[in-house]
């Protein structure tokens, strides 16, 4: 059974006020080309189809056109909503379109949709789990102990009644603990929304969405395929791709990638203004790429971004790296913040404001409030 794993299309997204619609239309055509060449038995789309819960008309047209292309090719589609999507809008008319082989998971109601496929190796089940929060699962199963995102996913999947004797694939959209994040992702500080990878033990392959960099977590078959396009300069060194999953007999899963070349790359250039404007330094490069220009001039260049745009048409961002900026830059403790829980961060704030640490009772109160607010 051959499956193509996609996620995080973020249709309609703007990056530094630049619309990505043209780039997204281009990359969806490239994905269709890959599908034509690979001839998969199904396409898995792991959430964040849109960039916002109320998508633009352009974004909706792109998604509709993509689904029509897949339906015309009679390629089964298994898609879920992510945290950027409205689960209700995403699955609108899902019962109608299912007759074309397109399965759009509805809003979570206590049931994890399951679809059965068969090949020469027997049964393969595909489970669709849209993005869920603890409060949503708790509302359906009030007697279950659910205090965090791991509990929520564990309970939801326990009630899915997975037969571990068969091959099982899960499509999900969550932040799995231990995964690497990018600047363009919505992930809670301190990992409050993280899910332990052990929750997915029953599945032979877990097609994840949410994080923009392709990666595996815990084991090779728990995988983020990453975005098909770069959506921030923290992704400038990423090589974007689609993931091809070939499932033989149970326990035999092969994974490979097909690289995607964008219409415009996203990259950084650095140097003195005069050097960046010299023809010999940009000749032969794609000057229509999305550019972050880092100037090393000691003095600010008047109207630099407009002047640079004469050569680099799609310059998105300008910054300086010189003695002045280095001297005035505060030492960043961003990495330290990432390693701390919300309760630890609040505790540090409390101590600075009150010149004393929180009591155990106060700490427990804050923990409870954070769980309720972010659950």
List the helices and strands and how they pair.
Blueprint: E1 2-6, E2 14-15, E3 18-19, H1 21-38, E4 42-46, H2 57-72, E5 77-80, H3 87-90, H4 94-97, E6 102-104, E7 113-119, E8 122-129, H5 134-140, H6 149-158, E9 167-173, E10 175-176, E11 194-195, E12 205-209, E13 215-217, E14 219-224, E15 241-247, E16 253-259, E17 266-271, H7 273-276, H8 279-282, E18 290-295, H9 304-308, E19 315-320, H10 323-328, H11 334-339, H12 342-354, H13 360-374
Parallel strand pairs: 1-4, 4-5, 5-6, 8-9, 9-12, 10-11, 12-14, 17-18, 18-19
Antiparallel strand pairs: 1-15, 2-3, 7-8, 13-14, 15-16
What's a quick, concise take on this entry?
The protein is α/β, with parallel strands linked by helices. 30% of the residues lie in helices and 25% in strands.
Poorly predicted runs: 330-335
How many strands, what sense, and barrel or not for the largest sheet? Answer: 6 strands, mixed
The structural domain count equals 3
CATH domain fold name of the largest domain? Purple Acid Phosphatase, chain A, domain 2
The class by helix and strand makeup works out as alpha/beta
Helix content class: 25-40%
CATH homologous superfamily of the largest domain, by name?
A: Metallo-dependent phosphatases
- CATH class descriptor of the largest domain: Alpha Beta
Q: Give the number of DSSP strands.
A: 19
Which geometry do the CA atoms define? globular
- What is the rounded distance between the termini? 37 Å
Rounded Rg: 23 Å
Mean pLDDT: 91
Number of contiguous helices: 13
Work out the strand percent. Answer: 15-25%
Give the second-level CATH assignment, the architecture of the largest domain: 4-Layer Sandwich
Order of strands, main sheet, comes to 6-5-4-1-15-16
């Amino acid at each position: 059974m051959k499956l193509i794993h996609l996620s995080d299309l973020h249709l309609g997204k703007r990056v530094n006020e630049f619309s990505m619609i043209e780039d997204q239309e281009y990359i969806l055509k490239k994905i269709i080309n890959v599908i034509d060449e690979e001839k998969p038995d199904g396409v898995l789309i792991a959430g964040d189809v849109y960039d916002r819960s109320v998508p633009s008309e352009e974004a909706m047209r792109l998604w509709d056109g993509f689904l029509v292309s897949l339906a015309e090719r009679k390629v089964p589609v298994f898609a879920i909503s992510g945290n950027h999507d409205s689960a209700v809008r995403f699955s609108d008319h899902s019962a109608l379109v299912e007759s074309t082989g397109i399965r759009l998971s509805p809003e979570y109601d206590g049931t994890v949709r399951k679809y059965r496929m068969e090949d020469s190796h027997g049964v393969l089940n595909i489970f669709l789990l849209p993005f869920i929060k603890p409060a949503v699962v708790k509302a359906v199963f009030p007697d279950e102990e659910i205090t965090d995102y791991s509990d929520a996913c564990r309970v939801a999947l326990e009630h899915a009644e997975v037969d571990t004797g068969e091959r099982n694939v899960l499509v999900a959209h969550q932040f799995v603990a231990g995964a690497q994040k990018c600047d363009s992702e919505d992930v809670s500080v301190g990992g409050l929304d993280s899910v332990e990878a052990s929750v997915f033990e029953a599945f032979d392959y877990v097609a994840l969405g949410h994080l923009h960099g392709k990666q595996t977590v815990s084991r090779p078959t728990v995988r983020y395929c990453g975005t098909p396009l770069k959506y921030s300069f923290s992704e400038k060194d990423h090589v974007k791709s689609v993931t091809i999953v070939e499932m033989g007999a149970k326990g035999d899963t092969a994974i490979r990638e097909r690289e995607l070349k964008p219409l415009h790359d996203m990259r950084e250039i650095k140097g003195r203004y005069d050097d960046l404007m010299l023809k010999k330094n940009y000749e032969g490069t794609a000057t229509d790429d999305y550019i972050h220009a880092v100037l090393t001039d000691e003095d600010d260049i008047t109207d630099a971004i407009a002047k640079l745009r004469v050569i680099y048409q799609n310059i998105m961002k300008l910054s300086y790296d010189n003695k002045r900026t280095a001297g005035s830059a505060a030492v960043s403790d961003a990495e330290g913040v990432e390693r701390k829980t919300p309760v630890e961060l609040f505790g540090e704030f409390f101590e600075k404001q009150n010149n004393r640490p929180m009591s155990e009772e106060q700490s427990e109160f804050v923990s409870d409030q954070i769980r309720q607010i972010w659950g």
